[in-house]
Write a structure and sequence with these properties.
Mean pLDDT: 97
Number of domains: 1
CATH architecture: 4-Layer Sandwich
CATH topology: Metallo-beta-lactamase, Chain A
Number of helices: 9
Structural class: alpha/beta
Strand content: 15-25%
EC number: 3.1.2.6
Catalytic activity: an S-(2-hydroxyacyl)glutathione + H2O = a 2-hydroxy carboxylate + glutathione + H(+)
Strand order of the largest sheet: 1-2-3-4-5-6
Largest sheet: 6 strands, mixed
Order of helices and strands: EEEHEHHEEEEEEEEHEHHEHHH
Family: Belongs to the metallo-beta-lactamase superfamily. Glyoxalase II family.
CATH superfamily: Ribonuclease Z/Hydroxyacylglutathione hydrolase-like
Low-confidence stretches: none
Pathway: Secondary metabolite metabolism; methylglyoxal degradation; (R)-lactate from methylglyoxal: step 2/2
Number of strands: 14
Subunit structure: Monomer.
Shape: globular
Helix content: 25-40%
């Protein structure tokens, strides 16, 4: 069984080390801080053998060089990561990546950046989604367009509902405030928001999350719901998503 070590990194990132005890391989999922990843891996007795990047932003690929220099790890990433780091294997939608006997399918989740990908390990029930979707939120649309981003969210929505989503930032408390503004009559969301407040009051993480809960409460994933379209307008779900994303940017 795969082991996942999650730890805080930088100001609000989470770092993830994915370890296969059978093969001894370890993947660093994104690299906000190379030194911290090396420290965490050493404490676990693991050696990083691979780096899986979701997108090119420095708080996701900026630690690649330090890790590669220390371990010789191979970098697997979308083409856009070559803006800031060397890539050993470029991957895109539909490709497969392995860690020991475990396989991850690469999913195009572009919108936050134009080359953003996620890694879905179906047999293990997990997905590493970077900044494409958060607990009760989604990434800012820095490079993409609303229809593109909505198509990406639909690919995430199509995963098995029990999938555990490992997103990259502790943004949930702020996301919950906007979600309640966007979808004020959602009882499940109100209960979720209370749990988040309690967790953060104890400095507990709200990541990972589970897709089934996000499908019920995340306003961006609900842009195709009739009540959300009635409240926010839009000729189609991509239009509704665009209105929600713009409102969140100004919230």
């Amino acid at each position: 069984m795969l082991q996942i070590h999650q730890f805080p990194c930088l100001s609000d990132n989470y770092g993830f080390l994915l370890h296969d005890p059978d093969s001894g391989e370890t993947a660093a999922i994104d690299t906000p801080d190379g030194g911290e990843y090396l420290k965490q891996a050493e404490a676990k007795g693991w050696t990083i053998t691979q780096i899986w990047n979701t997108h090119w932003h420095p708080d996701h690929a900026g630690g690649n060089e330090a890790i590669v220099e220390a371990t010789g790890a191979k970098t697997i990433a979308p083409q856009e990561v070559d803006r800031i780091a060397t890539i050993d294997r470029v991957v895109a939608h539909g490709d497969k990546v392995t860690l020991g006997q475990h396989t991850a399918r690469v999913i195009d989740v572009s919108g936050h950046t134009n080359g953003h990908i996620a890694f879905h390990l179906a047999d293990d029930g997990i997905a590493f989604v970077g900044d494409s979707v958060f607990a009760l939120g989604c990434g800012r649309m820095f490079e993409g367009e609303p229809p593109q981003f909505w198509d990406s969210l639909e690919r995430i929505k199509a995963l098995p509902p029990e999938t555990t989503l490992y997103c990259a930032h502790e943004y949930t408390q702020a996301n919950a405030k906007f979600a309640l503004h966007a979808d004020p009559e959602n009882d499940a969301l109100q209960a979720y928001a209370r749990e988040i407040e309690a967790a953060r009051a104890k400095n507990e993480p709200t990541v990972p999350t589970v897709l089934s809960r996000e499908l019920e409460t995340n306003p961006f994933l609900r842009a195709d719901a009739p009540d959300m379209q009635a409240r926010w307008g839009g000729e189609n779900p991509a239009d509704t998503f665009a209105k929600l994303r713009a409102a969140k940017d100004d919230f």
